[in-house]
Structure prediction request, 224 residues.
Amino acid sequence: GEDVEQSLFLSVREGDSSVINCTYTDSSSTYLYWYKQEPGAGLQLLTYIFSNMDMKQDQRLTVLLNKKDKHLSLRIADTQTGDSAIYFCAESIGTGGFKTIFGAGTRLFVKA
Amino acid sequence: DGGITQSPKYLFRKEGQNVTLSCEQNLNHDAMYWYRQDPGQGLRLIYYSQIVNDFQKGDIAEGYSVSREKKESFPLTVTSAQKNPTAFYLCASSIFRNTEAFFGQGTRLTVV
Prediction:
């Protein structure tokens, strides 16, 4: 079945890099997304990668996609306390009917 | 400013009552969605609509109803048939299905 899995917690020190990992099961993914959720708020799209790409960089964010292993990662360089939030991985399945599957979210704690 | 607005931010419901959550967008998006978020779980799709006057059940539609009479509006009614309605509800919209979604700030519903 379709599933997206993430570890639930990650703790890093301010200034270090954070790497949040995600695995997915459906090989027909078209887009893979990273969303950020701050407490009591909705989700904000951080970045996305098309399934035929291996890497995408956007300022402090680097997304790596290993399609063979169905593994997606988000690296945040020079992590700041304002990066503390929940990060959701999601995949859009482009064949057949509509479907976007979200992971359970990784809560990132940044220690000063 | 373009965006998606949910109201109210907090809602309390007595058992046996129906309540309606509002979602309005001025992004001219065709597709709109309702998700439910529970602690430690990913977002689960309740209903989605790709065009006006049309909507489809998601993975957990039982106990919920929606309408899409206007492009801008996609209200969600939580009926008394929903046995465990306490959750955080998120509305989202996108240009087309499976593309980047823009989320509202969410409504936290509590049954008292």
Notes: Chain A has no helices and eleven strands. The mean pLDDT of chain A is 90. The interface with chain B takes residues 4, 8, 30-31, 33, 35, 40-45, 48, 88, 92-94, 98-105 of chain A (CB under 8 Å).
